[in-house]
Each structure stands twice: as C-alpha cells, then as structure tokens.
Amino acid sequence: MALLSIMTMRGVGMRALHRKMAEIGRVVHAGAHDTSQQRYFHRELKSPSLALQYMALIGVLATYAMASSLLYALGMEFVVCVTGVLLGIAISSMARNLRYLNVGGLVTTIFSSIAFRMLLSASGLGDYWVFPLGVLMTLSISAIASDPLTYLILILVAWLLLGLGGFEQALLASGDWSLLYAAAAVVTGLLFSSCFFRLRYSNHVATARLEDMAYRDYLTGIPNRRCFLDALHAVMNDGKPPHGYLLMADVDDFKKINDELGHEAGDIVLRELGQIIAAAAGTFPHGRIGGEEFAMLIDGDLACVARVAEQLLEAVRRLAVVQRGVTISVGIARVQGPVLADSFRHADEALYEAKLSGKDCVVFHGGASGQGQASAGREMHQKSGG
Fold first, then answer.
1. I need a labelling partner for 9 at 20 to 30 A (CA). Which of 88, 200, 213, 259 fits?
2. Residues 6+ apart with CB under 8 A from 170
C-alpha cells in the first residue's frame, strides 16, 4: 500500500472524478456542514445570489442617478459604498465554496444598505422610504440565503444599517403597526428561506441517490462499469499522452463456487473482492466491470504495477469467507494510444492467457520489457503453491 501512496494522478478532471468516486457507495444524509451538501448548495445559489447582488448595485446607481441634486452631497463615502458592493460581487463571483459565497452576499448587503441609507438621508425622504425598502430587502434576501440562520444574520445587518441616521423614528412612526409589519416581513422571509432550504436539501439528496444508482455497483459498493469508463475517458482526454496500466481481474472457477455453494456464497466472494480492489486502488480509478470481473487503472512503472497485482493475489488467497479456496487471475496491459477499446482488448487477452496458464497468476500483455523485466516477470508468472 505504501507503494500506491507515492504514485500521482494527473489533471483537474481526474481529481474531480476521484472525488466523485470517493463519494460512491453512500447516499449523503447531509448535515449543516456536510461537504457534498455545501458543494451542491454553492452550485444552486451562485447564479441567483449574483443576480440579486447585481440588482442591488443597479438599484443603488439608479437611485443616485435619478436624484441629480445628490451629485455633490455624498462624495467619496458613496463611492466607497459602491466599491464595497462591487467587492461583494467579486467575492461571490470567485467563490469556490458556499462559505465565500455567503461572505460575498454579506459584504454586498452591508455596503448596499449603507448606500441606500446615505441616499435616503441626503434626499430627506427617509421617513417615507426606509420602511418599504427594508421590507423589500427582507423578502429578497430569503431567496439567496443558504440556510435560515444565514438569512437571519443578513436581514439583521440590513435593518440595523438602514435604521442608522435617525430613521428609527420612521420605523416606529405608526407605533405597533410598524412593528407588526416589520415582524410579518421577517417571518414571511424566514418562511420562504426555510422552504427554499428544504427544497435545495431534498434536491441534493435526490441527486445523490441518482448518482449513487448510476455510478455504484449495487452488490460490491464500489464504482461500476460506467464510472470506471468515465475515469478512463478522462485519462484519454486530459490533453496529455495516455500512460499507465489497465489491470483486469477475474475470479477463478466462479461458476463452481455458485454451483457448489450457492449464489449467496458467490455474492459474498464478490463483495469481499470488491473491498480488496478498493483498498488496493486507493484513489486510482477502479470498479466492477461486469459479472466476476474487476478493473483498475494504475499510474506507475511495470515493476510497481506487478507488485500491486501480486498484493491482490495474496489478499484473495487469504480470503476465508466460503468453504473453499478463492483465487483470481489478473491480466495487465499498458494504456497506449487514444483508442480505449484497444487497452481493454489487450488486458482481456492477458487475462485469458493467465487463465490458460493455470489461473491464480498475473500476465502482462506482450510480456515484461524494459528496466523492470527481470523483477516484474518473476512476480507476474508466479503461481500459488496451493
């Protein structure tokens, strides 16, 4: 396993696929800080959040443009506020996760609220407009808040900043009626925010289940053929010459296991072998490609791949899950050229040769060559004494 840990994979596309493969095998019941949920919420919220922030910027600039008498009354303070709104938009645009997206929304909320307060104060219309403006922001923010707690923080900031400058009297001008309307707006916005959060959460769980069914093998819990082929296509299309080794493993005499011990015993063998394959592969693409066949893509030299294959054989020989010995045969082919089918065919030919050679062994397509020929060749054709 230490040998596998020092091998490196290439390309952003491959790393993203590896993260997906790591999530295969579990349906996420996401909590507030679940990584998968955070990524999903970030994707869902980024566009509407940016749209609302741009609307805030347009609203600030349009209000300023319509009040030409304010041209010289605000000065640099207003420029700072507009710059702050642009900063919030920039943070949200570059945000790679939900945390920074929320930070961008908070920055935009702070500076847009201050800008509107300054405009209202300079125009002398604050007593009339501060209350409907606060209600408008309260309801609008509910659509982009990632969760109810974030929503409460954002509207608290908005109301506090709008209330500065003596507008508290405007908010309380109608006594209990003003408080009632403000509270109703907050409660309504909180209801909207909670409903949006629940819908996003439900969609996230449904998406996770669909991905689980599409990419996970139902019996072994490891990636299935579709997921493994996606990994191979990512290697072929990453813009670099394809390299590495395709390893295919097949359970020896699997039909006899099913016939003698029953299909339940066969399923047990497949599940255990799936776990062995997953442990040996680590972050390398791997999966069950059909029946009792498994595959793995390894980025390393020939001697390294031979040792990994031998580790697989040894681990399977130690299996004691059924009332008979279990072995596998392994075929290995170098990944060369853009045609994926060629690599599969070569690995399958090597696997067939391993079966003809007595099973429980490893065969490399075309024979071992190069620097690792001596050491790799001995291990690849070694057979179990049992």
1. 213
2. 126, 127, 128, 130, 131
